[in-house]
Task: structure prediction
Amino acid sequence: MYSYIPHTSSDERKMLEAIGVNSIDELFVDLKEGGCLLKDFLKIEEGLSEEEVIRKVKRLANMNVQGVSFLGAGIYDHIIPSAVTSLSSLPGFSTSYTPYQAEISQGILQSFFEFQTMICNLTSLPVSNATLYDGGSAAAEAASLILSSKRGCDEIIVSSTISPFSLECIKTWIKGTGNTLVMLPEKDGVSDFDCLEGLITNKTAGLMVQTPNKYGFFEDLTGIDSIVHSFKGLFAIYSDPLSLSIQKSQGQWGADIAIGDTQSLGVPMAFGGPTAGYMAVSSSLMRKIPGRIVGRTVDNQGNTAYVLTLQAREQHIKRERATSNICSNEALISIMNVIYTSQLGFKGMKEAALQCRAKAQYLLEGLDKLSFVNIKKKDFFLEFPVEFDSSERMEKFLLGLKENGIFGGVRLYPLTKNKKDEATILVAVTEKRTKEEMDEYLEIVGRLENE
Amino acid sequence: MSKIIDELLYTKDHEWLKIEGTEATVGITDYAQSSLGEIVYVELPVVDDEFSAKEEIANVESVKAASAIYSPVSGTVSEVNEELSDNPELLNTDCYSNFIFKLKDVTEGEDLLDADAYREFLKTVD
Result:
């Protein structure tokens, strides 16, 4: 393989002559005195031929363990129609980069416009941007938006039941800004809204919750919007977009900001990413939403044309006074989302969501018969926590399944670092799982009963 | 030559203000609007919020820049020009008849220039 350095030695010589130095070493002589250049060249191995690279990567790929996945905690194994993979793999989508004069790429802009329309329909909020990096960054951007919107307020209340990954992102964003994160306690697997009013001060800018929450349970958000709006705060709800086809949307709950991760809409698990984040807001926040918004207009000949309608105010113009510095988006992922939703339609999404729920219910009922587990009876979407009588039993359970090619669930403790979660796993069941797979799961773990 | 009105006071940030008793009416000057170009958005403060002098209170965005408006005096917002939300270009058409916000209980105001002083100041920036 060649090293991709485009300059020939004669190019180099000409450039050195033009600035009046004799060699590359002489060019960097000042840096050497400062001691910031390496003495010896880095020890990098020789390059490999194409064939050698293919063999090496294949060998590595074969080390991956294949299995039936009941894993979730934010990333789920849903059915992806092959049209999503084929169409989104077209080089026009998969290799292109939005040019700096974005309007030259009308196709890409149109796909963002369709994405925004889809997000607005799902969330029942009027303004959507053209994606954020993932659910975590969407949550963090929403926290920044809430904190920057209400003058003199530097506290945000976040429910303890939001995803631990989102919480980490929010903590990272807030660190060093002088803002304060206030946690709303949880009770019995859902937010304890009885505590909400006690946490509100004259510094509170707003509230963020998640439904289905980090355990998979739906949250009852009735009346929460009135509490938040009574002190002129902003209300943000994080939701799996697929769940919005069977539960109340953010707009219907009275939220000002809708956020989440679009992985459930046609995006492979891919070891946890990349995914895309989404954000939709009420019209009063239109000028404050981070990221870019694509709009549809007409050109000087009356033809439909797509443009970047709102983006400039943030990174290009407001600079250090910008409330967000997100400079890109997840174009390819959003295209996959758009193809997925156009394949399924709202009816198909609802069907997929209902199947997830029904199948998860089937597995839950089977697991509930085991004497060594405790399962909370709560309204949930496709994921639920299973608590064991000991962490040893939990490990045996997971190992027994793994030996039979089944990934039985995600250990909760490493995510929450909360002692009460030490013997708990999250089990996710999507529409992709079959009755046979679930029966096999139940049969394997049933054997543990006699041990 | 930028238009300057004799009866008004000015700041070095190119804002004009009219003080009547303890109330101040604030807008941007002709120099400011012509430097900004076509104004597309005005972010107004919230009525009843208190500001100290030199604190960022509003934002004016044009097709080429976003500029913060700093409160020229300390006070409480008593009125904002809602018309600018739908017609921000009014600041280009007539910047002196279209105020941005009004402050009440005005207490502090340093470094305010009269028309002549502002005229002199403009000579140094051009």
Summary: Chain B has four helices and nine strands. Chain B touches chain A at residues 41, 43, 46, 49, 56, 61, 64-66, 68 (CB under 8 Å). The mean pLDDT of chain B is 91.
